[in-house]
Amino acid sequence: MSELRGPVLVVGTGLLGTSIGLALRARDVDVLLSDVSPEHVRTASGLGAGHAVPDDADPQLVVVAVPPDLLAEQVADALDHYPHAVVTDVGSVKSGPLAQLDGHHGLERYVGSHPMAGTERSGPLAGSAALFDGRPWAVTPHGASTEAATSLVTELAELCGAMPVRMTPQEHDQAVARTSHLPHLMAVLVAGRLVEAPEAHLALSGPGVRDVTRVAGGDPALWQQIIPANRDAVLALLDDVHDRFERLRAAVAGTDLAALGELLAEGRAGTRRIPGKHGKAPRPTASVFVALPDHPGELARLFADASNAEVNIEDVRIDHDPGREVGQVELVVDLERAAHLTEALVGRGWTVHA
Amino acid sequence: MSELRGPVLVVGTGLLGTSIGLALRARDVDVLLSDVSPEHVRTASGLGAGHAVPDDADPQLVVVAVPPDLLAEQVADALDHYPHAVVTDVGSVKSGPLAQLDGHHGLERYVGSHPMAGTERSGPLAGSAALFDGRPWAVTPHGASTEAATSLVTELAELCGAMPVRMTPQEHDQAVARTSHLPHLMAVLVAGRLVEAPEAHLALSGPGVRDVTRVAGGDPALWQQIIPANRDAVLALLDDVHDRFERLRAAVAGTDLAALGELLAEGRAGTRRIPGKHGKAPRPTASVFVALPDHPGELARLFADASNAEVNIEDVRIDHDPGREVGQVELVVDLERAAHLTEALVGRGWTVHA
Description:
CATH class of the largest domain in chain A: Alpha Beta
Oligomer: homodimer
Number of domains of chain A: 3
Largest interface: A-B, 139 and 139 residues
CATH superfamily of the largest domain in chain A: NAD(P)-binding Rossmann-like Domain
Helix content of chain A: 40-55%
């Protein structure tokens, strides 16, 4: 360990590049920055993410943090330009760029990676040293990657506070196709059906449709690059879904309750496979619903009362349904603490239902 | 107004029936309760939702709150048994039960309705007088419903604190097919694809897949009744989605970026049509992300600090990604208040990124 001494060159000072710079600077690693936009470099530098790369730089590690379409080209440039450096990238797909790099000189010094951090925001100003805290960070060596290069990239993930998860580029792409790309596309299809809806129909929208469609609000230009870059893995899943979709349609059309029930049960089983907080198995939780006047201060008072009851709140959902001047807050807590919390809140005058 | 004097007979003392009883009792309306389970009646009665219906009851209004499969039968029974009463139901589909009732004697006294309230919980103990506060409540007269019956049901919704939305049974079913049934089925298909996923792949799950699949955790036995009961409207939407799904698959397979971009843009446009809080047009909001140690009290301290800054919090999301011992809280606030909140929280020692 502690092979990573720097300097680390970050190519691309958007959200991810700037956040990596900030996280490394907090650990006293020297960080150099480059970007096609000198303005972005100045901003990231001003935030304390590093300083502009000099012409004679000799980085130990290059982190390529550019949009998917430019990844392979920028990794190749880095391998050529810095013949002693290990090179990684933080792109959301791994096999495609690797295939484009096939046969490139020095490829044993390249190890792909992918921190599972938010993509809805962008730009250096959105950067944060805490962005990767405790997040999974896929480290994806290819067949020819050296072990030294792989450890250095693993150490990068650790220095940024993330949990490195080693897998092959192919495994990675299959994993994100299932946990990110497919959900995104299906959310897009559901949300797309709202475009032509009569306004009166949308008045019946509840929290369900909001949750299902939220990710579809993401930047189309970014997803237009991500999906084709993971074409094969996404297509394989779309084929699986197509098969189930046809079964679903037939079950609804033919009122085949057994077939419909089987699909519904499969869906519920799937929701239970998503890992719980901190990667542990999901703990049983219960929801406590509290009526809440919609003005500043009430939420603070509610959380203070919950805190005084010494109950840890695992999740919060505020009900945004139209027309509620009195809102509803859902507090998700450990199953064994729900009764205690309910009692405590009722004792403090809140209107609670379990 | 104020035609509804009672007594109101509630048939079925589950979540919705008990909540209606509680809401009406809070307005001093006499409420009678019946259920196939005497235990449920005793529980609902003990909660203050009304008292067991006597044999010689002469209700002004009967509210049928039973599972979808039993709706038409129970509405017919109520029309026969109480020849002076107006009869409504609170089922989640409207055309199917009406068709089953076609030609029934006294049908002019029946007006369907549907409060847009949660269905994930069940049973009388989950009931609350506040369940309907400010929620849309569809009131769906059929062609032969009398105006007097329609007003009485509208008044029921108002007395329960809801916002009545008048539409035809057919409009209602099309609206919920789009805003509830289709999102549910698509979430089921996405969640179903997690069943066969290798555990290592699921380690990369983020908040996106959790949101998209959440509703798929609902009770399969209930949805097995709801979907077939709205067969035609759901099928029409499944056909639309099928068409888009085929276009999507072709766009991904052929790397047709223009076609893919069009579908992604349509999805984003759809997310923006969902009405904002209190039925108003969505106001522009911004998210402020705050790092938060994962133990009791920190959330209370955060909300107290936000409250002292006099910023109203529109929504809250707690990041549940595996491995974060320091969690991340997203505070959604009015766009114009975000900078002020950020400054205030940083001043109180919080680690914030915009």
